[in-house]
Design a protein that fits this description.
Length: 439
């Protein structure tokens, strides 16, 4: 079969007598991606409206403490992701990928709806802070399962020699959800007075997310199960077949280290850069949001390209390129941000295009690192731990170091983690094009 026949835009053709047609795979890919975009939108909306949530849900008499508390709740949601990744990863490896993707969609929507209708600190005091925390805990738990299963599912339905390009769609959804959240943020802050946004306008994105989740749920119910999972003998699904515990442990540790630099850089430049521009450089909120949208759209457009290139040259060279570029450019790009909107646009665009290089490869690289019967569990634990420890804490640490007059330390921290990504990839074998059934 030619390359053209197995690309994303290839004509309908059967993948085998019992296999799914390419059209069915593409339909399932779209259903998975739409749901993933909306989950990342709901997740990112919290970061986008952090300054307003801080004022509404925490003691407004101490603005610094309120902002740090809001970012801490953001981090707590991430800390629930490893548990969600483990629990839902095990369920996905036993009951299937589709079941988990539908369940996590419902949980994320419920959390978003709760935040949208949550009474403010002025109305119910500290209960507002507590309920906000619980809603983010539920979302974090669901998000851990969603991320692991989506990465596994897309990689498993992709043609082996196009796995990098197909897998890049998972990170397209990550950027797409963030772009959608920032777009809604820009519309809300541009259309409403600042006092109105602070009073109730910040709730709009969360209520909108809950409604849109119904569309994603409808699409996901029609998804086909992954062939790699269904063709596995039933006796092997509970992970009864012996696997090398040493090999799996090594893969988990390397994936954690590999994603540490990627996720810390990603959340710094998607979730914190606009907050930094608003709170530290005096940039207008609507300007910061639209500049973030522009930067993320530029990076999003490069993702399929990076995935395609990885199918040609391999995963390792591109991951190492990211590590070197981000370690060298993170500090100068951060220093570029000022009160003018173009400074955030240029700095974030360059940084996120670099982050897009490994982002496009994550689904393929992680899936190729684990055997089928423990794939979702392995990804769920390793990826969620790394994102929780290094990604979810990035906005909080950035703000904390700035408040302590140690801003340069946060930049060095990101640079060191990016170099750690390079070390991990150097120790991993090249896996492009392998058959996941035999992984």
């Amino acid at each position: 079969m030619s390359d053209a026949q197995t690309s994303l835009g290839a004509p309908l053709e059967a993948e085998g007598k019992t296999g799914l047609t390419l059209r069915a795979k593409r339909r399932s890919l779209i259903a998975s991606t739409v749901g993933n975009v909306l989950e990342w939108y709901e997740w990112s909306a919290y970061a986008v409206f952090t300054p307003f949530i801080a004022a509404a849900m925490f003691n407004p008499d101490d603005s610094v403490s309120a902002l740090l508390s809001t970012l801490a709740v953001f981090s707590v949601g991430f800390l629930m992701r490893p548990l969600g990744g483990i629990v839902f990863g095990r369920v996905a490896d036993r009951r299937g990928r589709k079941f988990v993707l539908v369940t996590t969609m419902l949980m994320m929507a419920a959390g978003s709806l709760a935040i949208g209708f949550l009474p403010s600190y002025a109305s119910i005091g500290a209960w507002a802070s507590l309920i906000l925390l619980l809603a983010r805990v539920v979302q974090g738990f669901a998000h851990g399962g969603e991320s692991a299963t989506a990465n596994t599912y897309v990689a498993e339905i992709a043609p082996s020699h196009r796995r990098g390009m197909w897998g890049s769609i998972v990170f397209v959804a990550i950027f797409g959800g963030s772009v959608l959240a920032y777009t809604v943020g820009g519309v809300v802050t541009s259309s409403l007075a600042h006092s109105t946004v602070a009073e109730w306008g910040w709730r709009v994105p969360f209520l909108l997310g809950a409604v849109l989740a119904l569309v994603a749920l409808y699409l996901r119910r029609a998804m086909d199960e992954s062939e790699v999972f269904t063709e596995q003998p039933a006796a092997e699904r509970p992970t009864d077949r012996p696997v090398s515990r040493r090999q799996v442990t090594r893969s988990v540790l390397l994936v954690i280290l590999m994603t540490s630099g990627i996720t810390s850089a990603h959340y710094t430049w998607t979730s914190y850069a606009s907050t930094y521009a608003i709170t530290q450089q005096g940039m207008a909120p609507d300007v910061a949001y639209w500049c973030s949208v522009g930067a993320q759209c530029i990076a999003l457009a490069t993702l399929p390209l990076w995935g395609h290139v990885s199918d040609r040259v391999g995963r390792r060279p591109m991951m190492i390129a990211f590590a070197v570029l981000m370690a060298a450019l993170h500090m100068p790009l951060t220093g570029m941000i000022g009160s003018a909107g173009w400074t955030l646009l240029v700095a974030a665009a360059v940084a996120l295009v670099i982050v897009a290089i490994p982002g496009a490869l994550l689904s393929a690289t992680m899936s190729e690192a684990f055997p089928t019967q423990v794939r979702t569990q392995g990804i769920g634990f390793a990826y969620s731990v790394s994102v929780a420890v290094f990604g979810g804490t990035a906005p909080y640490l950035n703000q904390l170091f700035i408040n302590l007059d140690m801003a340069q330390l946060s930049e060095i921290y990101i640079m060191v983690l990016c170099l750690g990504t390079g070390v991990a990839v150097y120790l991993m074998r090249e896996t492009k094009g392998i058959e996941l059934k035999n992984a």
